[in-house]
Amino acid sequence: MTDRQPLPVDAPLRVVIIANFTSDTAERNDRFNDLACRFAERGADVELVTSQFSHSTKTMRRAVPGGTGYTITHVREPGYAKNVSFARLRSQAAFADAVGKHLVTIDPVPDLVLAATPPPAVADVAGAYAKRIGAAFVVDVQDIWPEAFSMVSVLPAPVIDLLFSSMNRHSADGYRRADRVVGVSHTFIEAAVAHGADPARTSVVYLGTDLGNFDRCAAGSDPLAAQAVAAADERSAFPTVGYAGGLSASYDLRLVIDALALLARERPTGPTPSLVVMGDGALRAEFEAYAQGKGLDVTFTGNLPYPDMVRTLAKCRIAVNPIVADSAGSVLNKAGDYAAAGLPVVNSQESAEYRELLERYGAGISCATGDAQDMAAAFRTLIDDPSLRRRKGLGSRRMAEELFDRSVTYERMVDELSALARSRVPRGSTSRLTAPRGRRNTPALQTLPEQ
């Protein structure tokens, strides 16, 4: 390891952030673009290393020019068509290899390396590099691999163990080298500790959102997508239900449609329940056809720019979080947005952590996963009791203010990681990042040639 003296207080930090899954548009609401901006706003020289392949669209990203805030580097990755596939494993192994090749070209070397996992091989490669150059190293846990794969795989457990043994080794090596392990939920930090992370050097920073920015967006003029919600409210005595997120096999929109169809049948002479779906994905056409077959008033907006999504969500009266059984997800992006909007949540996700948060803050109603009758009962309770709906909405906003506000949580994270980079915090010290149980420049972008 290179011997390095602590940086002077007034010396600009050199920060490298490595994240496979980032926003295609480099918008600020993405966790890693947000962190890059916050470091850059403090004068740091920041490079965000990500993939040329877009996980959300399954296409290669186009280079976007302009900006001086920080640099985005796209490294080559072959890509894949399905999220759970051998092609994805091969693709992300190639991404980790490309990251390793790029890191050794960086000059001058960084003072801080922050690597998101998954994929675990990236944390391993980045950790080895950081230790070699004497930089502070931080792992940010976004999901738990290989657990997330094994939950949806049809392969026998021994085969899974064999296939994913390298993931376990990469995870253990990455966590062992880390000066800090940050995670987006307590659930994921517990998994990291099980893979070898030192509990004394772990912290939770929820994905969240910047409440100031969220509120400014919510107060803006209505785009056409938000007008669709207002029109739905006019057509229906039912409060408009909102969903924001992906439209893939992990999200049980059929369950929501079935539950609302049950309510419609209970009141055949009344107005039709309305649902606004903000997002896109491989199953959008199937969900649209399913909703049409049920005769419901469902608006699919497609992907919206974040400000438009916020304005649309803010017009809804109830949010829904319909996650399929056995999902490895924990406290998701949509949890922060729903809470920021002050919406009561009807939740079918099995995550014990998120269910406990909804219960503690009185922010929603959890129901049985996959049970349309139970979800319909939850909707009925909130629809028929406006006072309860308001109280749970206030609880939801309180959760956002206490746990999810990036202007507090991300600023604290940048404070601590900056201090870590300047004078290496001794191992075993307790992090202040743990969530209480409780100038914007367009980035420059460069794309590396194939190696």
- At the first level of CATH, what is the class of the largest domain? Alpha Beta
Cα-based radius of gyration, to the nearest Å? 22 Å
Compute the average pLDDT: 86
- Give the class from helix and strand content and strand pairing: alpha/beta
Net shape: globular
Number of helical runs?
17
CATH topology of the largest domain, anyone? Rossmann fold
| N-to-C span | 27 Å
Major sheet: order of its strands?
A: 9-8-7-6-1-2-5-16
GO molecular function: hexosyltransferase activity
Region (Disordered): 424-451
Keywords: Glycosyltransferase, Transferase
Pfam family, one: Glyco_trans_1_4
What descriptors fit this protein?
eight-stranded parallel sheet, Rossmann fold, 451 residues, 2 domains, globular, alpha/beta, 17 helices
Secondary structure layout:
Elements: E1 14-18, H1 31-41, E2 45-51, E3 53-54, E4 59-60, E5 71-75, H2 86-103, E6 112-117, H3 120-133, E7 136-141, H4 147-152, H5 157-163, H6 165-177, E8 180-183, H7 186-194, E9 202-204, H8 211-218, H9 224-235, E10 241-244, H10 253-266, E11 274-278, H11 284-294, E12 297-302, H12 306-314, E13 318-321, H13 333-340, E14 345-347, H14 352-361, E15 364-366, H15 372-384, H16 386-404, H17 406-422, E16 444-447
Parallel strand pairs: 1-2, 1-6, 2-5, 5-16, 6-7, 7-8, 8-9, 10-11, 10-13, 11-12, 13-14, 14-15
Antiparallel strand pairs: 3-4
Helix pairs in contact: 1-17, 2-3, 3-6, 8-12, 9-12, 10-11, 10-15, 13-16
